[in-house]
User: Which sequence fits this backbone?
């Protein structure tokens, strides 16, 4: 009969592996690539501008001066004036106070709602999953922009309606991503181990599942802020966003559009402001992804 | 025999996804029997090995004993207490498990200390202020330096992770420890120390060890008794030395012949076992090993052999197992 080589185990001391010296965990922040910091710098500048707009801006963004409309850039008006004679530079700065909060809230609220709903759906399954994910299907079956337009009409124009509309719409993406992640993590051995240890469902979800799926939300969030800001600009451009005379980048682009051949900077500069913010946020998103993958 | 852990006729079934057509016709979903009426007992401090091919139900059996999957029929008693139905936290604590894959068995976002202290806190095993000390003790128990307490799992080697997995199980001071392929994913050089650790823990803490593996050499090394499983059933259940010296069931013989040996070259195509095990959804009549068995006879087609033998601790499920006198 065979003699399996179990004799090979005899006499081996229980410890022969090299035992590592104390380990300092490098925090997640320390592992972030440089591009994240560039992105954070750009976004921080925007936030600073928004906060300090009343201090930096040379004019009241709503002050009309019909005698001096459509002026070219000069020492008095750095970026000229619009068709009503309002200072474009001041309006550009003040618009950050509108676009940033809506962009951030319009991305954070759906991210939070979608992450929680997706985690519940994936973790509990059964009817919880059915109710949440079928609702998601219904939302997704509508053309996105039409849904926002309908909601804005129903709730009345303004920042609040736009944020609500974004939340109703965008949570679906997070719910789907997180649900998939939870389905994967739920069957890993460390979750089984937590169950064998007699931990309660809610604790397992909170301590052993949630922290290991949340990175997907974090990676997706910055690009969603870009999306929310762009969408806000698009709606304002179409006249569905923030009602005039409030300064808002999308509305400014719409205002400047008829004058693109003569006063090209009028529509271009708010466009560049959006691009710059998008760039900063994209750098953060990309860097996050690299750091979390590594 | 005190029958500390008593597994009696345990059956675990899963509903298998059926086709839409079958569901429309109202056919009941097909049922897969992963564990099919297994019985065995273990004394306190005994070490039982469970061997079998992949898919034979050994991991499902482990999950049924820990309470991770429900038992369809049969019973599990621990020290006289019936573990049927939903188990409370204190009962769960008595049976702990070490998992197979060291890369997925530790929560990647918790440091070793956080992971261990959560268990100690929830189960109130030591007073709160003693928790850090207890964590260090647990690492000492699995022969790791306390400096690893602050480490995240991805900084640990496979062997270290497996030891942390053992420490996590031991944190709850269980009476039964189930090791499901606990060294299969480790390098051979790391297997030996982990096995020796399990052995010494069993001796020092009086643990009942259930060691599940496909590796005969490993099972032989750590077990007092071995249960050989085939397609959800126990085909042989005997003391380790006797089983390895003189296997009774043709399946056990084939498994041993299939194990690689030093210095013996196998010719290509020369395999002890013919073919794949049949599907658990479509079992052959009579003995389930019949289609692959070199001894298959008419009786094997008609009656499924019982797990019997000359004594309670010497049993095999083959019509011909005890034809010759036991050696």
Assistant:
């Amino acid at each position: 009969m065979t003699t399996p080589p179990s004799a090979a185990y005899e006499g081996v001391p229980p410890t022969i592996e090299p035992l590592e010296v104390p380990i300092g965990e490098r925090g997640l922040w320390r592992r972030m690539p440089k591009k994240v910091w560039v992105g954070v710098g750009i976004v921080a500048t925007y936030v600073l501008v928004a906060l300090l707009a009343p201090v930096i801006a040379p004019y009241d963004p709503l002050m009309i001066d019909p005698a001096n409309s459509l002026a070219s850039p000069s020492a008095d008006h750095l970026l000229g004036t619009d068709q009503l004679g309002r200072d474009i530079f001041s309006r550009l700065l003040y618009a950050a106070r509108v676009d940033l909060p809506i962009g951030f809230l319009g991305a954070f609220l759906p991210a939070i709602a979608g992450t929680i709903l997706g985690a519940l759906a994936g973790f509990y399954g059964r009817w919880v999953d059915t109710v949440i994910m079928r609702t998601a299907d219904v939302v997704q079956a509508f053309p996105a922009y039409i849904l926002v337009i309908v909601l804005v009409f129903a709730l009345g124009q303004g920042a609040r309606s736009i944020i609500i509309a974004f939340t109703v719409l965008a949570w679906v993406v997070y719910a789907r991503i997180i649900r998939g992640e939870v389905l994967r993590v739920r069957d890993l051995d460390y979750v089984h181990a937590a169950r064998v240890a007699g931990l309660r469902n809610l604790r397992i979800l909170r301590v052993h599942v949630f922290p290991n799926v949340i990175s997907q939300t974090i990676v997706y969030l910055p690009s969603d802020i870009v999306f929310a800001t762009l969408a806000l600009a698009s709606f304002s451009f179409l006249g569905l966003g923030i009602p005039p005379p409030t300064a808002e980048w999308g509305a400014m682009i719409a205002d400047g559009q008829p004058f693109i051949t003569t006063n090209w900077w009028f529509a271009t500069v708010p466009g560049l402001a959006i691009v710059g913010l998008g760039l900063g946020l994209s750098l953060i998103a990309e860097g996050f992804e690299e750091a979390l993958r590594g | 025999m005190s029958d500390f852990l008593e597994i009696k006729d345990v059956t675990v079934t899963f509903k298998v996804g059926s086709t839409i057509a079958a569901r429309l016709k109202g056919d009941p979903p097909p049922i897969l029997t992963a564990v099919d009426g297994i019985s065995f007992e273990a004394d306190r401090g005994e070490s039982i090995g469970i061997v079998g091919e992949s898919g034979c139900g050994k991991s499902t059996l482990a999950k049924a004993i820990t309470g991770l999957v429900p038992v369809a029929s049969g019973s599990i008693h621990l020290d006289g207490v019936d573990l049927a139905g939903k188990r409370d936290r204190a009962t769960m604590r008595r049976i702990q498990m070490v998992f197979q894959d060291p890369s997925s068995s530790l929560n990647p976002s918790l440091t070793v200390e956080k992971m261990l202290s959560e268990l100690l806190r929830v189960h109130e095993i030591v007073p709160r202020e003693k928790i850090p000390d207890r964590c260090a003790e647990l690492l000492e128990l699995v022969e790791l330096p306390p400096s690893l307490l602050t480490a995240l799992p991805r900084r640990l080697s496979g062997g270290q992770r497996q030891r942390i997995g053992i420490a996590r199980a031991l944190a709850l001071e269980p009476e039964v420890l189930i090791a499901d392929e606990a060294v299969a994913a480790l390098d051979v050089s790391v297997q030996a120390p982990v096995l020796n650790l399990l052995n010494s823990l069993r001796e020092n803490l009086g643990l009942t060890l259930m060691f599940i593996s496909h590796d005969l050499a490993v099972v032989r090394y750590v077990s007092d008794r071995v249960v050989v499983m085939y397609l959800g059933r126990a085909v042989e259940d005997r003391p380790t030395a006797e089983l390895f010296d003189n296997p009774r069931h043709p399946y056990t013989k084939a498994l041993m012949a299939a194990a690689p040996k030093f210095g013996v070259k196998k010719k290509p195509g020369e395999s002890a076992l013919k073919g794949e095990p049949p599907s658990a959804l479509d079992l052959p009549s009579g003995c389930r090993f019949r289609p692959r068995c070199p001894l298959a006879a008419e009786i094997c087609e008609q009656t499924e052999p019982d797990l019997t033998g000359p004594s309670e601790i010497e049993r095999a499920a083959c019509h011909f197992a005890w034809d010759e006198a036991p050696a």
Notes: DSSP finds ten helices and no strands in chain A. The interface with chain B takes residues 1-6, 8-9, 12-17, 19-25, 188-190, 192-199, 203, 207-208, 211-212 of chain A (CB under 8 Å).
